[in-house]
Design a protein that fits this description.
Elements lengths: L17 H8 L3 E6 L4 E3 L15 E5 L2 E10 L13 E8 L7 E4 L10 E9 L2 E8 L7
Antiparallel strand pairs: 1-2, 1-3, 4-5, 4-7, 5-6, 7-8
Bound molecules: zinc ion.
Length: 141
C-alpha cells in the first residue's frame, strides 16, 4: 500500500472471479456475457441465470459510466476508517452495459447521482480494486 492510500479490504480471488481480477490488474474491466441472452452478468456466476448456458464468456467493457445511486458517509462513524471519509459508496452504470450496476467507491468528494465517472485502479494487497473518480473531461449536461 502506498503512503496516503486508504486501507481497503482485499477480496479473495476464486476460480470464478479470477478473469475479473486479471483484467483489473491490467487497468481494464471485463464482465461475464451470455451470447445466447445477449446480456452481461455481474457478479460472476458459474452459469447464466437467464438461460442456464454453461459458461458465459468474458468481455471487456467501458471503464467509464455514470453514478446510478450514491450514499455518502461524511462523519467518522467508523472508528479506524477516518481516512476513508467522505466515504462515497455508489452503484455505477458502465457505458454500454445495460442491466448491471457495479458497487464501488467514488474517490474525492461532492459526487452526486448522475455524475460521470471513470474507473481508477487501486491495489488492496495483490488485488487491483476498480474504484471510480469523477470524470473531469465529461461535458456538463
Ligand atoms: Zn444466457
Amino acid at each position: 500500500m502506498r503512503p496516503g492510500m486508504a486501507h481497503r479490504s482485499t477480496p479473495v480471488v476464486t476460480e470464478l472471479t479470477a478473469p475479473f481480477w486479471r483484467a483489473t490488474e491490467q487497468g481494464r474491466i471485463e464482465l461475464q456475457y451470455c451470447a445466447l441472452c445477449n446480456r452481461f452478468i455481474f457478479p460472476p456466476f458459474p452459469e447464466c441465470l437467464g438461460c442456464d448456458s454453461s459458461r458465459p464468456e468474458w468481455r471487456e467493457v467501458a471503464a467509464s459510466g455514470s453514478i446510478n445511486t450514491i450514499s455518502v458517509v461524511e462523519s467518522d462513524i467508523l472508528p479506524g476508517l477516518e481516512e476513508l471519509i467522505p466515504l462515497q459508496v455508489a452503484l455505477v452504470a458502465l457505458d454500454g452495459v445495460p442491466g448491471v450496476l457495479i458497487p464501488s467507491n467514488v474517490l474525492g468528494a461532492g459526487a452526486r447521482s448522475g455524475d460521470r465517472v471513470r474507473a481508477t485502479f487501486e491495489y488492496a494487497g495483490t488485488v487491483a480494486l476498480p474504484l471510480f473518480a469523477l470524470d473531469a473531461t465529461a461535458v456538463e449536461q
